[in-house]
Write a structure and sequence with these properties.
The protein contains 7 helices and 14 strands. The chain is an alpha+beta fold. The chain has 2 domains: about 130 residues, Jelly Rolls (Sandwich), CATH 2.60.120.10; about 80 residues, Orthogonal Bundle (Arc Repressor Mutant, subunit A).
Length: about 230
């Protein structure tokens, strides 16, 4: 299993791209700290920077025509966002908001990323592979909201986490979790109460176990197949 969503072939994009690793940023105190609920960028802000999360949690969201919040992604330490500026996006089409107090963000100018990519074809490939994977996941989530019931969406969400972040243990897969039940509910389009109820159902069926910090999945294939019966 991969070490994390942003790892490709043992290359961590955060470690490669953090400005403290390149040029003259080391003395600049480059990190920016955000309070809980503070906006990092708004919809239609200029897109000229890519952001890496040094600590904390960030959600990317938009609003429906009726004013309801639609959460696209919830990201944690070592992950990055705002990357579509690399594809020529001139303004943001989402809002980025800090979810916890003291979230530390490392901004990287697009020019700096281009400079890194210019001299390193392998790195460029990994960056675009990352962007493609993230967009593909978003498309799958939208499709799931339309065509799948809540249990199927939850099982698919857990399965994706396991494939991306799961660590093999003798008793199955263990997935470190930085998401609350409310976070998961926002991502799969349901209520926190429903997520808690269905997680308890899956635990009673022996398909998962969990606490506040991790999921334990004895048999990933059995978990995924369980959703097909609904």
């Amino acid at each position: 299993m991969a070490k994390g969503f942003w790892y490709f072939d043992d290359v961590n994009l955060f470690e490669v791209m953090c400005p403290h690793k390149i040029r003259d940023y080391r003395e600049e105190g480059h990190y920016k700290e955000f309070k809980k609920g503070e906006v990092i960028y708004f919809n239609e802000d200029q897109a000229n920077t890519l952001y890496l999360i040094a600590n904390g949690k960030v959600k990317l969201l938009s609003y429906t025509e009726s004013g309801e919040e639609a959460v696209r992604h919830i990201l944690g330490r070592g992950e990055l966002f705002g990357e579509r500026a690399l594809l020529g996006e001139s303004t943001r089409d989402e809002i980025a908001e800090s979810m916890v107090e003291g979230t530390l963000i490392c901004p990287v100018r697009i020019e700096e990323v281009h400079e890194l990519m210019k001299d390193n074809a392998e790195f460029s490939f990994k960056v675009f592979k990352f962007i493609g994977l993230k967009l593909s996941k978003l498309e799958r989530r939208v499709e799931a909201l339309v065509f799948k019931d809540v249990r199927q969406r939850l099982v698919e969400f857990i399965g994706d986490l396991a494939e991306e972040r799961g660590e093999k243990q003798p008793e199955g897969l263990v997935v470190d979790l930085n998401l609350t039940h409310k976070d998961i509910a926002s991502l799969i389009g349901t209520s926190r109460q429903t997520v808690t109820s269905m997680l308890n159902e899956l635990r009673e069926e022996g398909l998962i176990d969990f606490d506040r910090k991790r999921f334990h999945i004895p048999d990933l294939k059995a978990l995924q197949q369980s959703a097909l019966a609904y």
